[in-house]
Amino acid sequence: MPNGAPRVLVVDDDVKLVGLLARSLRFEGFEVVCAHTGDAALAVLREREPDLVLLDIGMPERDGIGVLRETRRVSDVAVVMLTARDEVRDKVGALDLGADDYVAKPFDVDELVARMRAVLRRRGKPALDRLSYGDVRLDLGRREAERDGQPLALTATEFDVLAHLLRYSRQVHSRQALHRAVWGYDSDSDSNVVDVHIGHLRRKLGDPPLVHTVRGVGFTLRSHS
Description:
This protein is an alpha/beta fold. It folds into 2 domains: 7-123, Rossmann fold (3-Layer(aba) Sandwich); 130-221, Winged helix-like DNA-binding domain superfamily/Winged helix DNA-binding domain (Arc Repressor Mutant, subunit A, Orthogonal Bundle). Helices cover 41% and strands 21% of the residues. The chain has helices spanning 15-27, 38-48, 64-74, 88-96, 109-122, 156-167, 175-183, 193-205, and strands at residues 7-11, 31-35, 52-56, 78-83, 101-104, 130-133, 136-139, 144-147, 150-151, 211-214, 218-221.
C-alpha cells in the first residue's frame, strides 16, 4: 500500500458488493479490510483501528445501527453509513448516533470516494486526493494532471494509469498487474493495450523521461531529480 494510506473497514453482508468496493477503494489508494457481519466488524475495529468505516445499516442479526451504537462506546472513528433504505428516520438515527455521513444505495463509487475523502479531511486524516512524484502533480478530485506547472491533456485511462504508477512509485509494475489494476481484469497474453497507453503517457509527459521500462519485468517511475 502507499505510505500513509488511510485504512478503511468495509462492512456489508453483500459479499459481492464488498468485493467490488474493496477493489475500487484499493485502486484509489486506500488500505481495505472487510467484514460481513456486525460482530466481525466490531472485532476488526478493535484489532485493526481503521481510519474510516463504511457501514451498511441493513445487516442480519446485529444491524448497522447496533454496530454504530457499540462503536461509539469505544471509538471516535469516522463512519459513513450505507443503506438501501432512504428514509429520513434512518438518516436522522444514524447521524444522531454519530455517523459522519450517509450514502443511499445504489451509489456512484466516485461520489462515495469523494465523500469519504471529505470526511477524512474534516477529521484531519490523509485523504489521498492529491498525488505527486518529481514535478508531476495529480488532483484526483478534479481529475487534473500537470507537469512542471503545465497542464497535461490526459484521457481518462491515461490518468488512471499514471495515478496507479504514482501511488506505487517505488514498485515495478508488470503489464498484467497494470491491466488488472486499471481495467479490472487480466489481459490476454498477446494484448499490447498497456504498452499503447504507456507510449501515449510518455509522449504527453515529455522530457526528461519519467516512465521507464524494466526489461523483462514491466514499468516503473524514475525522476530526473
